[in-house]
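Have a close read of this protein, sequence plus structure tokens, and explain what the tokens say about the fold. Thanks in advance:
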Amino acid sequence: MSQFEFIFVLISIIAGLALAQLLSGMARPPKNSSGQLDIAHIAFSTAILVLLISVWWSTFRWQKYENWTITEFFLLCVYVSLFYVLATILSPSRNADSPEFKEIRTKFYAVHAFYSVLEPVVIYVRDGELAPWYYLPMVIHLFLLSILGIFLRMNMFDRLFSLWLIIVNVAWIFLARFTG
């Protein structure tokens, strides 16, 4: 078993747990205080699901990485664990109802902001560069929107950002993952 295969097994377990957590939460869609579906919550769950699957697939790019140290291993474990944390924030327990997004807003945005900071570090360690040119502005704008969400505390912003995150993730899959 190569180092990559050994590490990929752990990454797959963590990603699988996050995926299961997200899907279990999506099986019982959260509702807001007026009994309507919580659009922001559902859209953020969908966005994180799409992002998780995309990142899980892209971990194959680590296959060619040769200089594994505890630093890279730890970095990758923390990076993938953030998806589990986001999934747990969105769907805290398999037995309980999911909270309204406004109740978990600050935690979700804070973890997403941290993810947005860690993402370029992981890419740089893996590839030795931050190519393509449009990558860094994309990550920075998602970080800034997450920070803005913490302070604005507006349901309309949450809905718009959650839908925007789905669009950005799907566009990134098609533009970068399929073509680059």
